[in-house]
Design brief:
The complex is a heterodimer of chains A (230) and B (406).
Chain A: H1 10-21, H2 26-29, H3 38-42, H4 44-48, H5 53-61, H6 65-74, H7 94-107, H8 111-116, H9 121-130, H10 149-156, H11 158-163, H12 181-193, H13 196-203, H14 205-220
Chain B: E1 3-7, E2 12-16, H1 38-47, E3 52-54, E4 60-64, E5 70-74, E6 78-81, H2 84-89, H3 91-103, E7 108-109, H4 119-124, H5 130-147, E8 150-153, H6 156-171, H7 173-185, E9 191-193, H8 199-205, H9 207-212, E10 222-226, H10 229-232, H11 255-261, E11 264-266, H12 280-284, H13 286-304, E12 309-312, H14 315-323, H15 325-330, E13 339-341, H16 342-349, H17 368-374, H18 378-394
Classes of the chains: A mainly alpha (230), B alpha/beta (406).
The complex binds iron/sulfur cluster (2 copies).
Residues 33-39, 53-54, 57, 88-90, 92, 94 of chain A line the site of one iron/sulfur cluster (SF4).
Chain lengths: 230, 406
Amino acid sequence: MEKAYADVPAEEKTRLYREVVQDARFDTYLYGCYECGICVAACPSARFYDFSPRKIAQALAREDVDLVYEQMNDDVWNCSQCFSCLRCPRGNNPGGLITIMREVAVNNGLRTTKEALAGYTRIIYKIMTTGTQVSPDMLQEDAFPDWGPQVKDVADHLAVWRRALPPETMHTTALSWDVEERTMRELYAIWKWTGTLDMIAQLDEGLHDIMEEIMDDALEDSGIDAAVSD
Amino acid sequence: MATSTTKTTDRTVPVRGTSVETTKTFRPDPGEAPEEDLREAVLQLEREGEWIVQRVPEPYYEAPTKYGRMKKIPYERTWHHKSCGQCGHIPGYSTSIFWLNRVLGYDYFDPRDQTSCTAWNYYASATSNQAAQAAVAMRNFAAAYETGYFPLIHCGTSFGHYKEVRHELVHDHALRRQVRGIIERLGRPFVIPEEIVHYSEWMYAVRDQLQERVVHDLSPIVSTVHPACHYYKLQSGDAIYDPEIYGGQRTAVVTGVVQALGAQVADYSTWYDCCGFGFRHILVQRDFTRSFATLRKIEVMKEEANPDVVLTHDTGCVTSLDKSQFAAQAHGRNVGVPVMSESQFAALAMGAHPFRVTQLHWHSTDYRPLLAKMGIDAEQAWAEFQEDVKKIEAGTMDYLTWESVL
Ligand code: SF4
Ligand code: SF4
C-alpha cells in the first residue's frame, strides 16, 4: 500500500514534526509510551472513530515523522479533548499532544484543517470579537434540528425570555452576558499581541480581514497602543 | 452498605449508592502525593516579586483534595467568572448559583469586566496559543483583584484550563514574562489567585447550609451524577475528594451536595466516561456527541439505575446529555431523563421557582415528572411565568428582578 501523503516532501513533514516537539508543552506531555492501551480504553473518540491516542503517543515517541504528519491531517480532529487519557500510567497527556498538533496544523494552514473547521468560522468570529462564545442567538432551529422543537421555542421567545432572567448581566441576546467595551478591547489587544489573529489568516483570510478591521477600529480610540511590538 | 431499591414501572433495580464495596478506608497522606503542591510555588514566586497572589477571603471552608491536601474555599466576596454556555444556553444554571448566594446572604459580584476563558478556541479549533490563553486568564484574574472579590469559576472547562495555565506560568519563565508584559501593557496588575475554585466546590462547602433550607422531600428521588472531565481529570490533584464519599476514590463534589440535600445517588458503570461534548463535535460533528451521550451515558444510567434526574457540574455536560436525548427518543431508545446542574437541583429543593430561577424551559428533556415527584406544581409555575412574560411584552415590567424571586 502506498504511504499516505507520499507526495508531501520529507523536509516539510520534518519541519512540522519539529514544530510539535519544540513546543514548550511537549516535554511534559510525552515521556515515552508503554503501548499499554489504557488511554484507548478511556477514550470516547476511539469508540466511534478509527482513532487511537496510543498511536498518537507512539508515533511521536518513535519519531515517526510520516505517521505524525498523517495523524496531523487525518486523526487529530476526531479527539474530544476530554482528557480521559490522562490516566496514562506513563504520565503522558495524549490529548495535550493533540492540542499541540492541531495548533501546528492551523498555523500551517493544512488543507484537512480547513476542511475540519469549515462551518466553524462563525464560532471563532463570535469568541474573538465578543469575548463570549455560545451566545443565546446561536440557538436556531436550522443549526440544531436534532435537538427538537425546544430550540425553536427558545429562538421564538429569545428577547423576552432573556429579559425574564433575574441577573442584570444576562439580558443580552447576541452575547452570553453584557461585556464592557474596555474588556473587549483588551481582548482584541491580546489576540493581536500573541499572534492569535495571525493564526486565523492561515485558516480563513476573509475572516481574518473582517476581524482585524473590527479590532483595529475599536482599538484606535481606546488608549491601548496595540502595535505589535513585543 | 448503602444499598436500597428503586421501583421502576416494570421491575426493581438495585441502587448501589456511593459506598465502595470494601472495608478498607483510604486516607491519603499529603506527604506521599505524587505531584508537587503548585500553590507553594505560586507563593514562592510572589516572594520573588514575580506576581501578586490574591488571598482567599476569610472565613473560608477547608476541603480535602485528591492527595489529602486541604483547599480553601471562600464562602463569600466571590467574583463570578461566568460561563458562556451556561449564560447563553442554560441560563438557569448561573441564575441558580446567584440565587443560592442570595438565599444564604452572601456578598458576591457579577462582573461585566469578564471575558470567557476562550478555551473553545484552544480545545475546539486550536486557533489560539499558550500565551493568548494565559493572558486571557490573567486579565480576568486582574479584573477580579481590582474589585476586591475572589474568582469563583462557573465552568468546568474554564476551571481545568486555568489550572493548566497556572501550571504553565509557574514552570515557564519565558511565558510568565511574556504574559506579564501583556497584562502590564494593559495597565492591569499581574495577579494570580491563591486557589483556583470551581463553583461546585463552593456548593460542597455550603452543603450543610443548603440542607437546612430544603423545603421538599427528596428521599424518593434517585439521581445519577456525571463528574465533569475537565473538573477532575485536568490537573487532577486539585479536585475535592472526601473519604466518606465513594471511599475517596472519586471526586466528592456534586454527590456530596445531592446526598446532603436528601436525595439518593445511584451508581452506574460508565461514570468515568465523558459526556461526548467534544467542543467541535457538539457544533459540527454532532452525530458523535448524540451517540456517545445516549449509548454510553444515558442508556447505561437508565439500565443500571433508572434515575429521575442526571446531575452534573459543567456547561457542556448538561448540554450534551440533555439535548442529545431528543433524537434518541425518536428512535425509541431507552432515554428520557432530565439533566441539570446540582445548583439548579439544590435551588429547586430549596423552593426556587422552576422557571423564574432554574429556567427549566431552556432544557429539552421532559422535567415535569421530576418536578411532580419533588412536589412542585409545574403547571401553576408555568402559568406564573407566563404572566411575567406578558408583563415584559406589554412593557409594564422591564425585567424579572431578584426581588420577585427571593
Ligand atoms: S496509556 Fe500512556 S503508555 Fe499506555 S498506550 Fe496510552 S500513551 Fe502509551
Ligand atoms: S482527550 Fe482525545 S485522545 Fe484523550 S481520551 Fe479524550 S478524546 Fe481520547
